[in-house]
Amino acid sequence: MNTIRFYTHKGKEVLEITNDHNQIIKKSSHISGNCLVDILFDDKSTSIDLDTRDKINELILRCTDHRTNDIQLLIKRKFADIFNTHYPIKHELIDNEICSVLHTSDIFVLINYLILNIYSEKVIFKQCVSCGGYFATKYINAKYCDRITTKSGRTCKQIGRRKNCTKCKKGA
Questions:
Q1: pTM of the full structure
Q2: Bridge partners of 94?
Q3: Which of 121, 137, 104, 123 lies closest to 15, judged by CA?
Q4: In the Cβ-directed half-sphere of 131, how many Cα atoms lie within 13 Å?
Q5: Which helix (H) or strand (E) holds 111?
Q6: Which of 22, 48, 51, 54 has the highest count of CB atoms within 10 angstroms of its CB?
Q7: How confident is the model over 25-51, as a mean pLDDT?
Q8: Is 99 helix (H, G, I), strand (E, B) or coil?
Q9: Residues with Cβ < 8 Å from 39, sequence gap 6 or more?
Q10: DSSP label at 148?
Q11: Angle, nearest 10°, between helix axes 71-78 and 50-62?
């Protein structure tokens, strides 16, 4: 049985999944809200039932702007059980910082916890103009994600900034 460890450290969400032999099979770091996007769209090591996937997809597609969508109302309606769930949290010292760490073997406990974080942090979701993937942000005007999309290791955000940079266009 896999063990899941999730915490927020220095503004990043950190996810570690280990197998029965305590070997790490996945370790990732994300900007707030993007761990859920990774699990839903990019992660091949976890399986999520179709009903849960559809509910999370609806959340992501509808929650693009806090001014026009009530993300909290949608979460209360579709994921009401997250408010009554006991989350196995331990406090641990990580790089000289006390972090609240979720420990579970159930991917759905992690998903519910992530949705609860989205609720409390008022995270919204956007579709990247460059790669088309979804990403979480707190900024209404965000256009690009932080996925690495080139062999040079540059992200969509870096490429998009350069593409829209007036100084870069003048020099070309």
A1: 0.77
A2: 97
A3: 104
A4: 16
A5: helix 107-121
A6: 48
A7: 79
A8: strand
A9: 15, 46, 48, 107, 110, 111, 114
A10: B
A11: 170
